[in-house]
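User: Good morning. I'm curious how phosphoenolpyruvate would be positioned relative to this chain. Could you predict the structure with it bound?
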Amino acid sequence: MKSDSILKHKPLLIAGPCSAETEEQVINTAQQLKESGIQLFRAGIWKPRTRPNNFEGIGEIGLKWLQQVKRETGLKVTTEVANKQHVEAALKHDIDVLWIGARTTVNPFSVQEIADALKGIDIPVMVKNPINPDLNLWTGAVERIQKAGIREIGLIHRGFASYGESFYRNKPQWNIPIQIKSTFPDMPMICDVSHICGRRDILQDVAQKAMNLDYDGLMTEVHERPDEAWSDAAQQITPFTYRRMIQEIEWYQNPDEMLTQEGLSDIRSKIDRLDDQLLKALEKRMKLVDEIGHFKKANHIPILQSARWNEIMERSLEKAKKNGLASTFVTKFLEIIHEESIDRQQRILRGENEE
Ligand code: PEP
Ligand code: MN
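Assistant: Good morning! Here's the predicted structure, ligand included:
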C-alpha cells in the first residue's frame, strides 16, 4: 500500500520551495531539509499565478527532480495538482502525496475533475482552504475527494484573502479551520505558515499559534537562496533558518494521551459543572425575560428600553473589569443574550408562546 499513513505522523513537517526551479535548487534544498527531520518535501511544479507573465512553474521535468529527491534522500514528496493532466503526470512519476491548492478548492468543477482522475487510486491528498473564507467550499472539496474513495485526506490551512493592505498576506481566521475540524475530526490539520504570513519575520509566531491550537503539522516554504526565488521570495526561508524555527517551537504532547492524567480530567469536570450552571442560569434568565414580556404586552410598553440596556452593559462591564474578563468578550456575550431576549419578547407580543 503506497505511502499509507504518512499524514498521521505528528507533527508532520512539510517543507520545500514554493516552486521547483532547477534540478540543483531542488536537490540541494531537499538534502539540507532532510537534516531537519522533515517527513515530506514539497515543491510546486505547476504554479497558479494571479497575474500572467509571472513564472508559471517548470512543468513535468520538475517531477523527475522530485523522483531524484526520493532516490537521493529517502524523503517522500508532494506537489500541487489542479487538473486531470497534473494528477496523471504526478502519479506517473511516483509522487507520494498530492495537494489541492487554494485557487482550485474554490472551483467545484476543478475539484470534481481531480476527484474523477483519482477514482480507484490509493494516494493521500491534502486539501487547502479556498482563498475566500467559505467553510462550505472547503468542506465540499473534501467530500468530493472522499467520494472518489481516497482514504487518507489532510487539511491545509493557508489563510484567507482580503482586499487591501493587511498584516498577513492571507488572514488566518482561525475559527474556520477549527470549524472544519469538527466535521472531519480524524483528518490532520496542517498550517501553511508561509502563505498566511507572506513574510519571514512572523512565521515562527504563527507556527507557534498553530501548535497552541493542536495543529498536526506545518507546511513551510524553504529555498536554498530565498531572495532569488522565482516565486514567493518574501516568504521563503533558508534551510538553516527553518531548522532554527523548528528547534525553537514548543511542541506539545498528544492531548489524547494526557487525558488519562488526573490533573486534567479534574479540571475538565469542574468546567463541565460550571457550564451546567451557566446553562441553568440562562434558562432562569430567559424565564424572567418572558415574564417581563407578558408585563410589557399587558401594559403596552415597547420591548426595547435602551436606558435599561445601557445600564445592564455598564454594570456588567464594570464587574468584568474587576474580575479580569475582557470587555470585548463580555460585550459580545451580553449582546447575544440581549438579542435572544428581544426575540423571545417579540414572539410573546405576537402571541406565539401563548397557546
Ligand atoms: C503553494 O503552496 O505554493 C500555493 C500556490 O499555495 P496556495 O494554493 O495556498 O496559494
Ligand atoms: Mn508559494
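The chain has two domains: 6-252, 264-349. Residues 18, 221, 231-232 surround manganese (II) ion (ligand 2) (CB under 6 Å).
Let me know if you'd like a different ligand tried.
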